[in-house]
Design brief:
With 275 residues, this protein is an alpha/beta fold. It has helices at 15-28, 59-64, 72-85, 87-94, 111-114, 118-128, 147-164, 180-190, 194-200, 206-210, 212-225, 238-251, and strands at 2-8, 34-37, 51-52, 101-105, 131-140, 168-173, 230-232. It has a seven-stranded parallel beta sheet with strand order 3-2-4-1-5-6-7, with helices on both faces. Helix 3 (72-85) crosses helix 4 (87-94).
Length: 275
């Protein structure tokens, strides 16, 4: 069995930072986590990927092709579809080692996860390669500071859940960038009460009055499914990082039937007590 996290989220939500943070955290514990870059438009990330989609296709290839002439969004979709069509390349790059733990750093185009089928097809291919996966959906915590934005982020998370059909965790990234006031306010969103949050929304505007019933229906949907919960992620807090890892490892049952890979390191020579 092999294990992995499908790291998703809107552009700028901190996916690559999340991956590099987990790699460093694992290295400190003498463990190995691999990262696969699946973003064909990536320019910089603070980790060394074991597989890089840009070796197969780059978004510029789709945008500069005289026949295709895609824009940035169309180019990203084309690249992901091209990857699925050439999935043998990815399988060869990943190898067949058991007990691997891999982070798949995905593109920041939200429609890839919410309603298109290409990521679902990729998931099915990985599962056939004995990967047990967890979907990690990142949302910038600075975005989730008022009820309207919370509802928007929550509906996006629900769409990803239903589209991919994987064990799922929602992560509020960039917690270290929040002010004390914003962080205190955000606590009410970690285990949200939809009715309380909806009560905070302005009802004086004509738009909110007109669509008030729709907003209430969305709130009931969130509450009835009881699927949405957000976990804070602070790159400065080692205990917080360990808690996130433990939660995800439990979801994919990592370690229950496998040995943890470790890096080789030197032991200090024991002092000879015998004279």
């Amino acid at each position: 069995m092999r294990y992995g996290q499908l790291v998703m989220g809107p552009a700028g939500s901190g996916k690559s930072t999340y991956c590099s943070t987990l790699v460093k955290h694992a290295a400190d514990e003498k463990k190995v986590i691999n990262v696969v870059n699946l973003d064909p438009a990536a320019e910089f990330f603070d980790y060394d990927p074991v597989v890089d989609i840009r070796q197969l296709i780059h978004v510029d290839d789709a945008m500069e092709d005289e026949e295709l002439k895609f824009g940035p969004n169309g180019g990203l979709v084309f690249c992901m579809e091209y990857l699925v069509e050439n999935i043998d390349w990815l399988e060869e790059q990943l190898g067949e080692d058991e007990d691997d733990y891999t982070l798949f750093d995905c593109p920041g185009q939200i429609e890839l996860y919410t309603h298109m089928t290409v990521m679902r097809q990729l998931v099915e291919h990985l599962q056939r390669q004995d990967f047990r996966l967890c979907a990690v959906f990142l949302i910038d915590s600075q975005f989730m500071v008022d009820p309207a934005k919370f509802l928007s982020g929550t509906m996006a998370a629900l769409s990803v859940m239903t589209n991919l059909e994987l064990p799922h965790i929602n992560v509020l990234s960039k917690m270290d960038l929040l002010s004390k006031t914003a962080r205190s306010r955000l606590d009410s969103y970690l285990e949200p009460d939809p009715h309380a949050l909806l009560g905070e929304m302005e009802t004086t505007s004509k738009w909110n009055q007109k669509y008030n019933k729709l907003t209430e229906a969305i709130g009931r949907l969130i509450e009835d499914y009881s699927l949405v919960r957000f976990y804070p992620f602070d790159v400065r807090d080692e205990e917080n990082i360990a808690d996130i890892m433990l939660t995800i490892d439990n979801m994919i049952q990592f370690g229950e039937d496998s040995d943890v890979k470790t890096r080789d390191f030197e032991y200090e020579d024991a002092e000879d007590d015998d004279d």
